[in-house]
Amino acid sequence: MSKTYSDLIFDTESTRNIDEANSRINIGWITSRFDVAEHLDRKVVEFSSKLGAEQYNFIVYPVGGIIRGFWDPRRFPEAPPNIDLPDLQLANHLWETYVCAGISEWIDCDSENPDFAKFSEQELIKELNYACYLGLRTVVLNLTRKSSPNLAKIIKKWLWTKNVLFTIWVSLPTNLPKNEDLWSVWADFRKDCANFNGVRLQAILNITADLQDEFLELKLVERWKAEPVGAICVHSDVFTTGKDGQAVLPQLYQKLLQNLWMFDSMRLLLKQINDGTKYRQNLRREYATSLRFTVRNVTWMRQKMAKETDGFLATSNLDYHDVLQAPLQPLSDNLDSGVYNTFEQDPVKYQRYRDAVQLAFMDIAKDKESVVVYLLGAGRGPIGTMILEAEKRYNSECRDKNNKLKIKFYVVEKNPNAIVTLRFMNENAWRKRAILVESDMRSLPSLAKENNYEQPDLIVSELLGSFGDNELSPECLDGVTDFLKPTTISIPQKYTSYAAPIMSLNMHQTIKSAIPSFWGKGLVGHGRNEPELEEDDENEGEYVQKYPQGMAISRLDQIYVVYLRQFCALAENKPVFTFEHPNFAKTSNDREIVLDFDIDRAADIMGFAGYFDMILYKNVMLSIEPKTFSNGMISWFPAVIPLRKLYRVAEGDRIKFVISRKSDADGVWYEWNLEIHRKNGEIFKSPLQNQNGESYYMRK
Amino acid sequence: MSKTYSDLIFDTESTRNIDEANSRINIGWITSRFDVAEHLDRKVVEFSSKLGAEQYNFIVYPVGGIIRGFWDPRRFPEAPPNIDLPDLQLANHLWETYVCAGISEWIDCDSENPDFAKFSEQELIKELNYACYLGLRTVVLNLTRKSSPNLAKIIKKWLWTKNVLFTIWVSLPTNLPKNEDLWSVWADFRKDCANFNGVRLQAILNITADLQDEFLELKLVERWKAEPVGAICVHSDVFTTGKDGQAVLPQLYQKLLQNLWMFDSMRLLLKQINDGTKYRQNLRREYATSLRFTVRNVTWMRQKMAKETDGFLATSNLDYHDVLQAPLQPLSDNLDSGVYNTFEQDPVKYQRYRDAVQLAFMDIAKDKESVVVYLLGAGRGPIGTMILEAEKRYNSECRDKNNKLKIKFYVVEKNPNAIVTLRFMNENAWRKRAILVESDMRSLPSLAKENNYEQPDLIVSELLGSFGDNELSPECLDGVTDFLKPTTISIPQKYTSYAAPIMSLNMHQTIKSAIPSFWGKGLVGHGRNEPELEEDDENEGEYVQKYPQGMAISRLDQIYVVYLRQFCALAENKPVFTFEHPNFAKTSNDREIVLDFDIDRAADIMGFAGYFDMILYKNVMLSIEPKTFSNGMISWFPAVIPLRKLYRVAEGDRIKFVISRKSDADGVWYEWNLEIHRKNGEIFKSPLQNQNGESYYMRK
After folding, report:
1. Average pLDDT over residues A82-89
2. Is A157 an 8 Å CB contact of chain B?
3. Known binding-site positions of A for S-adenosyl-L-methionine
């Protein structure tokens, strides 16, 4: 076999590691016409044991029995054999573990022959029922058409209305013209199933000798990362014979398979296209070996590379990928010690703050004995420690021993719990250098007057969210403007948010399905309304959070924080809103923008990923925007700004992301919607989301 | 120490087992006035380590610091010290593991002094906030009054509207008159909290030297099994000195503690009443040893005893206790292989069927060469096997070798999937003795005419649910009446359902909180209505099960199947409905009854437990009614017929359970409600539940 990156790793590793890596990869054998043998339906144990010995973990077996499964539909209106695959030959848990139900391939609910379509429907239901009866966990359904609306209608009703335990794997057609877009075939099918849960409705991609065009173009392949791919089925005629005479997957196919391999929980399937295994005893085993060899280290390599950007998170046990979080609102909700503690682990952010402060000292402290520094919103004080360290470094680098800068250091924090910690820090770590001010920074101008606080030369704050201004940094910092000198410097000086359209079925479904539990129905929502006490026949005086716009809409009209993995970015990021500090002119913090993006492939837009970067001071920056990302920084995951539905776009369409930042006396909110300008001139506008901050309202 | 049953077990067991049993019991030390020492608030590590060495697993510590915690409220309106318990002395996960927040004991939100009540509220919120800040998992709140409506109001809002991770332990008063019912104090408090989740709001029972009367009467103590008891707090002055000079819990207290010990996940607390530990170095350790000794084997013994009634279920890994199941509807939903398989494990039921059939043969087969037997609703055939075994036994016991009975054996089953298994059984286990009839038994009269089937001498069926007739056995068996001879015998001959009022906060909450996930919103409900396709702005053409009566009511108007554990039966069972077969007279299967129960203690009625027994033939019976339970039988768990709310009753009240069985062309349903006839003559009637089968409808 030719060398791939997995060789590079394992050349120096022990056999045990290879075995371990191999064992993580599950491969299934699709029972084919070439396996047909008399009485196989009563010898499932022997058949699956034999394949087990050949390194397959499970089989896909015709759920009605093999004779029925490969019945010739041209014999219709004659009926196929009855279902006859006795359950008692295998214990229930073994059926579940080793057998996937193959739906008869002749079933065609979208046949042009209406009688056969109707007959197919009836026989499909029988087979689905029998898969339930056997307690199987996976059902394999073959699509043979570009469009299968009738089949989708049946499957949709089945999935939504029956308490089914199995996952349906939809194997995509292999008989369409090479330029036909399979992603669109799949996306139409799942849409016709009302986009049912991707844990229960998944695609099987077929890797055939005659590859579809879309698998040759990276930007088209990337879309599958946004879809639930349950298995990748490799056809046996894809394999060639390697130097050592063994079946081997050609390099091109290896690359494709590795690229499509998202998780080790995915499955591989082997589909026999000819009867070669009859004549070459080891062929089945060679297929399995070659497939495992191809993907076994993909996840390992990806994790290794992630360490560079994710830092210690990549090695933690938390699975933070694709987990939905509500953005923090530190202004209205006080953070707890554990949250502060997590942020304080950031190995990059605080160093940059220290560097920025030191740089500022070089500009403003020249020839001065002292400068006045305010830390605004100190939390538990990590930036405070950095400010004192910057002072120390500045002194050792720029000052003589007997001419040291000694800053006047005010530390402002509104969270009464964090104040307990700050007091402890001041005593035990800061040698009482800080003057603690327990107050909202916006009260500082009046408080300073009362207490004769000095005006700042430098204010330092860290008040940004994943989408930049979404923790109300502009409003907070504007609140101290009256107390500043004309020369006061703010760290950060400037920040900008960014956005790009994304596709992600998983994210759309995760947001839609995140409904509160019964006990969570009274939790304060993210919109304008507070929970209400409800007293009626149905309850016992409980609190209930009401959603005038409906709970479903409310969920989709919010901004989330997510470490995105199962997604596909459809364009480069563009800047959204920029803020600069100090804002002496007191210009409004309301904003409005329309971003244009050109679409270069068929896709479903689920929303926009949001990022930001900030200039702390001069050239000292922090960024979570992928192109300029501050490697190792873990304080912010991307924001996701969802749309209410998945919107299909085509190559050549232009979309517009219309977003505004609005405010009133009590808070701030975003409103947004999508416009699609089709190639043919048609314009579609999606409904305006979060109008008036009903679903997502950031309290001042 | 005196011998208890734990000695009896462990006399013959190794020390290792004792250690293992001890390690399952978690004991916490309540920091008391006697622990107050300077700077303890900055030495939480040392303090908890010391107690760890003395066999305590965690401490309850004043969350605002020890000086504040034991502040003297008589100094009001002077303010207590600020909260000052620095988080940084302990890593976040250690706080979480080793420390429970003690709320300051002087806080009294229901004080007669309105200023102090208001002040208390403000300080309570501060302390709850600080417990959140520290990330603590448990907060201990002391009740000192019979009624604490203001405190409950604050806690209620907190629990329902904040995303709180801690559990609140409500320690019940120790200062009330001895005849005051503490259960009522607790039940009032949790009711004032709108009965919030028992995982988050739990009681602490105090075992004091001066025990409340209710702890001396078993029927009153039993009520605590229906409540979420988070911890039992033993006061130090309860201990006496044993023969060996060590602190020991007197027998009466041991018995009480063992009786209250529901799960090893409960916690024990030790509360120091005097400063004895100052003078006796080992006292703390002795308390812990004695407490562990008392409860460490309670669970083990209970499991051992359960094996007798629960059979193999007791040894399985499944936790089937208090798990809500929807009753099966085998008539409208075909069962799957795994469900059949579970039932077929029953070690008792099938033997009784065999005995009953054999007994029937002795009556009806005398001098006959053959009798005609129909198995109606065969499933996968376990009773079929028993019928053939009964024939064999009858022949070997009652017949000569050359004069054997050979039954004509018809096996009727409507489930097309089970027919596959029956065919397999007939070929491989029954030597083709059976004539398989794939049909609903109610079509048998017409089918028999077409096919010249013989009339039965004996029909055998097993169509009962947990509440007897609730799987529509009467309707199914009535469907074959026209095909019977006047002499035909039915096995079973007769069955009766039973019911008794129960209390169980857990069951009430479990039913209320069992709302479907987003993906389950279209699942077929249990009422009359089918799911509907919903197409509007908020969704993508999904199925939705609508509940005209509201989803909350719909859940509470259904019958469930539950292996009850956290409950308390409030009276003996009474018979509900009886059915006899064959029903040649075709009397109606509709029924109506009013059951009277006298109430002998204060309690919250959540609903009724349902059971049944059946006479298979003459003296051969099966029963799940506790007094006559067929030991080892696992086929049926009790039924639960819930009420919509918890209804408080008092000693001396009489309640009436009004239940009717109704039917129409398509199905059968129950309607029920509760009447409370108070001692003072007042009558309360709860709303009629499941009117017209809207929420729970058994399709014919």
Report:
1. 95
2. yes
3. 340, 349-350, 413, 440-441
